[in-house]
Amino acid sequence: MSHLIRTLILLFICLGSDMILVAQSKQLALQSLVYAENSMLQISPLIISGESDSIKLAAAESLQKQLFANLATRNSFDYSFERLRISTVAIAKHPKANTRIFSFNVILKNGIFYQYGIVQRLGKNKEIQRFLLRDTAQDLPTDCLDISLIHPDWIGGLYYQLIPHTVNHKEYFIVLAFDGHNQNSNRSIIDVLYFENNEMHWGAPLFREGIEDPSEAMRVVFEYHKSARILMRWEENKKIIVFDEIGPSYPDAKNNPFLYVPTGDYSAYRASKHGVFTKETLDITDFGQGITPNFNHSKPKIDLQDHP
Questions:
Q1: In b/e form, how buried is each residue of 125-156, taking b as 16+ CB within 10 angstroms?
Q2: 3-state class of 223 per DSSP?
Q3: Is residue 288 included in any domain, yes or no?
Q4: In 3D, which of 32, 116, 44 has the Cα closest to residue 76?
Q5: Mean per-residue pLDDT, 63-91
Q6: Is 115 in contact with 90 (CB distance < 8 Å)?
Q7: Domain total of the chain
Q8: Domain of 45, in residue numbers
Q9: What would the pLDDT profile of 220-252 be if each residue is shown by its tens digit?
Q10: What is the Cα gyration radius of the chain?
Q11: Minimal CA–CA distance to 187: which of 232, 161, 222?
Q12: CB 205 within 8 A of CB 274
């Protein structure tokens, strides 16, 4: 009996020691990430306030390199990088997603926004995958908005929402981004991110302009006047992507996106049971900012209530 007790005591001591070692290891990993974030926070102000394009770009390259290295460990996926997010880097994530996007940009003297990013993915066996995002907008084909892109090709933008979406048992992520684009216009982008054979893809045929639209678009891009701002966000409780309608600021500006502005009307993309998002007009415009009357009666209105 005494031998059994001694054995149990030794077993508990060993288990306790292992638990202490695991806790110490996690604490050291956390401290390492805190120190790494502190280091990156020393660089990030130069991306915004550097005196020249070369200083800004050098800071951006350094930040991306450090962040890419720090996202290599399993513990890093659970680290929020909240201070970095507040200062410089947009982070798009979701509690149920195994993927998140880090993105930031440099505003050049000529008004061009040069984009940087990293996609971090937690694999089935808890391994970390990382994909470096570099601005390839100037090198993309002219029809890039209408085709699927394979990494490293990337349209670029600041990603602020990521929503898991399943179609025919295949996992996609709907991602919302803002792109400062150029000195004449901004863009707001609804895109699709997915992985296939460990390759990262952008764009999937999941968007229709209406019930009668026979074709699906790979992504949705709104381009509008540089000084304009539009609402575009995922409403979790309604399961829709809400956005401002845009149009020409005066009749002769038609087909010139540089002169497009919000019209005051709202629409949304809602997914069907087959997973394709279809555009519909909204009658209610209260998305947290207070109710605003919508007097556009030129087309049928669809209420915000969930459809059966």
A1: eeeebebebebbbeeeeeebbeeebebebbbb
A2: strand
A3: no
A4: 32
A5: 95
A6: no
A7: 1
A8: 1-87
A9: 999 999 999 999 999 999 999 999 999 999 999
A10: 23
A11: 222
A12: no
Residue 153 near residue 167 (C-beta atoms within 8 A): no
CB under 8 Å to 159, separation ≥6 — which residues?
Answer: 90, 92, 101, 103, 117, 175, 176, 177
End-to-end CA separation in angstroms for the chain: 67
208 pLDDT higher than 90: yes
Pairwise CA distance, residues 238 & 121, whole Å: 27
Among positive and negative, which fits the CA dihedral 150, 152, 154, 160?
positive
Please report how many Cα atoms fall inside a 13 Å half-sphere around the Cα of residue 284, on the Cβ side: 11
The average confidence (pLDDT) of the chain is: 87
Q: Where are the beta strands (DSSP E) in the chain?
A: 90-92, 99-107, 113-122, 128-134, 149-150, 158-167, 170-179, 185-196, 199-202, 207-208, 220-225, 232-235, 240-248, 260-271, 277-281
Instruction: Please give the single-letter amino acid code of residue 124.
Output: K
Q: Closest Cα to residue 89, out of 104, 71, 70?
A: 104
Identify whether 66 is part of a domain. Answer: yes
Please indicate, yes or no, if residue 73 is contained in any of the structural domains: yes
Q: Would 222 be classed as within a structural domain?
A: no
300's CB contacts (< 8 A; 6+ apart) are 281
Q: What is the pLDDT of residue 307?
A: 40
How confident is the model over 78-95, as a mean pLDDT?
96
Cis check: omega of the bond before 257, within 30 degrees of 0 = no
Side chain identity at residue 61, one-letter code: E
